[in-house]
Structures are given as C-alpha cells and as structure tokens.
Specification:
mainly beta; 5-stranded antiparallel beta sheet; 3-stranded antiparallel beta sheet; elongated
C-alpha cells in the first residue's frame, strides 16, 4: 500500500507518525521515537516529569512512560495499530493529536 508520513509539532515536541494505507478504507498507523526540547519546568526542582498522550481520531489513545526530572526527554518506543473506516473519502482527514503534560509536580 501507499503511506503518508506526518511530523506534527506540539510546541517543541517532535513525533514521527506513519500512515500505511492497506486499502482505501483500511490502514495501519505507526508512532515511534518521540522527543522534546526545552520544556517548561513544572517541578520546584526546576525540572519536569513529562509524558505524551497520542489520540488518533478518538479511536486509539496511547500514553508514553513518564520521563523523570528532565526538560529534554526522549521516548524510545513503537506503537502500531490498525484502523478501518467506512468512509474512504474521509481517510485523509484523520488526525493524530499529541498532548503532553506533567500533573505530577514532585519538587
């Protein structure tokens, strides 16, 4: 099948995502190896405990592991899943939303 690469950037976070079209209504999504630089410090110690949350069209939500006490995290991982739609004419409108946060301020 064909594929489409996408590199969405949420602030200074880089994510590599690949859509591999198996047919006009069925495709595979691969997300891997993400990084961020110069994140805002959220802990009193001047660091952060960042993680990323990937939301693919409200179909699949994946959270990375928390990287402790860093402002320049790297996540080495690969997540893959299949997606099927009844609307082939809308497959190019699917979005991968990336959110990052640190609710665990630990000083």
């Amino acid at each position: 099948g064909t594929h489409r690469d996408q590199q969405p950037k949420a602030s200074n976070t880089v994510v590599v995502a690949r859509w591999i079209f198996m047919s006009s209504t069925h495709f595979r999504i691969v997300v891997k190896n993400c990084s961020a630089t110069e994140l805002l410090a959220k802990n009193r110690s001047g660091t952060s405990d960042p993680y990323l949350v990937f939301n693919f069209d409200n179909f699949k939500v994946v959270k990375t592991e928390v990287q402790k006490k860093t402002l320049n995290p790297t996540w080495k991982f690969e997540k893959e899943f299949c997606y099927e739609t009844r609307h082939a004419d809308r497959s190019d409108k699917k979005k991968l939303i990336v959110e990052g946060d640190n609710p665990y301020a630990d000083g």
